[in-house]
Write a structure and sequence with these properties.
The chain has one helix at 14-22, and strands spanning 4-8, 29-33, 52-54, 75-77, 99-100. It is mostly beta strands. The chain has a single domain (4-100), classed as Alpha-Beta Horseshoe (Leucine-rich repeat, LRR (right-handed beta-alpha superhelix)), CATH 3.80.10. It has a 5-stranded parallel sheet, with no helix packed on it. Helix 1 (14-22) links the parallel strand 1 (4-8) and strand 2 (29-33). Keywords: Repeat.
């Protein structure tokens, strides 16, 4: 099972991301840094084994509510996401989250 997926600096479309995530349900590390993402796929919430999520340097304005399903998430990097104006309340429900950048 694929446990880490790192894509950095290459533009990826939302359909491509959705397909990638659907076939990678056991991911523990997901780094999608500066990939030109304008929307975080809702299916990200299905990655229930995810520990580290790096979405830095992208252009989305909100996170999907499905992030509350990432109960094992320990670190979330949203640095340089200049279009992101606020975090969903559901972030507070992630009891294992110790690093938010």
């Amino acid at each position: 099972h694929l446990q880490s997926l790192i894509i950095e600096g290459n533009n990826v479309t939302n359909p491509q991301l959705t397909k990638l995530l659907r076939f990678s349900p056991h991911l523990r590390v997901l780094r999608l840094a500066s990939v030109g993402m304008k929307e975080v796929p809702t299916s990200t919430g299905k990655l229930i084994h995810l520990r580290h999520l790096d979405l830095s340097g992208n252009h989305f304005c909100k996170l999907p509510e499905s992030v509350k399903q990432l109960v094992h998430l320990q670190s979330l990097d949203l640095s340089h996401c200049d279009s992101l104006k606020q975090l969903p309340r559901e972030i507070g429900e992630l009891s294992n989250l110790f690093s938010l950048n």
